[in-house]
Amino acid sequence: MSNTHVTRERIDQEVRAALATTLRTEADGIGMDKSIINDLGATSIDFLDINFRLENVFGIQLATQLLLDHVEEELGEGKAIDRDNKVTAAAAELLKIHLGDIPGVEAGMYADEVAATVTPATVADAVDKILEHLPEACPACGASEWKSEDGAKVVCGGCGKDAVYPDGDELTKRWIHDVEREKQLFASA
Ligand SMILES: [Zn+2]
């Protein structure tokens, strides 16, 4: 069931607000396609802070691991990142499916450089994908009516409990297996 209670505009707005607060800058000046690391100057600690803010606003759990680390865990060591710490051809294909055609994402890039491809738009996508998984019915009381007072946090129309979504790591794992079943990117790699 898709989530009709939270708009994409609201998600974008909250991503900008989280970045602005964490990086002490103006939300209006943040372009959605900027590299959060290279253009906005965020560190990995900043990412924890940004994610934490978004998790609180929307009542979700974002992925704690990067896509390629999940591939290594799910499909086997060396499948996504080779011995020289470079991205494999199969992993580059997967990244392109995941991120869209972003310049610079290619086989042989250093695994460390992948984090620099994260933009406000890809963070908003990650939030959006989790919110799409609003369950049909409330697991606590069985009511199938959700509501949101603030347009961000969704609660049950029956018992009033917060909606519970699958977490970002779980969804990433599912997505990797779905793509692999269809495309067999890593089967021969
Ligand atoms: Zn309920």
Q: Could you walk me through the main structural features you see in this protein, from its secondary elements to its overall organization?
A:
- β1 and β2 form a beta hairpin.
- This protein has a two-stranded antiparallel ribbon with strand order 1-2.
- The relative contact order is 0.18.
- It is mainly alpha-helical.
- It has a domain of 125 residues: ACP-like (Non-ribosomal Peptide Synthetase Peptidyl Carrier Protein, Chain A, Orthogonal Bundle).
- The chain is built from 6 helices and 2 strands; from the N terminus they run αααααββα.
- The protein binds zinc ion.
- Zinc ion binds next to loops.
Low-confidence stretches: none
The CATH level-2 architecture of the domain at 8-67 and 119-183 is identified as Orthogonal Bundle
CATH class value of the domain at 8-67 and 119-183:
Mainly Alpha
Q: Provide the helix percentage.
A: 40-55%
Could you tell me the radius of gyration in angstroms? 18 Å
Strand content: under 5%
- The first-to-last residue Cα distance is 35 Å
CATH superfamily of the domain at 8-67 and 119-183: ACP-like
Biggest sheet layout: 2 strands, antiparallel
**Helix count from the secondary structure assignment:** 6
Global morphology: globular
Q: In what order do the strands lie side by side in the largest sheet? A: 1-2
- What hetero molecules are in the model? zinc ion
The class by helix and strand makeup works out as mainly alpha
> H/E order of the elements?
HHHHHEEH
**Average pLDDT number:** 94
The name CATH uses for the topology of the domain at 8-67 and 119-183 is Non-ribosomal Peptide Synthetase Peptidyl Carrier Protein, Chain A
- Please report the total strand number as a whole number: 2
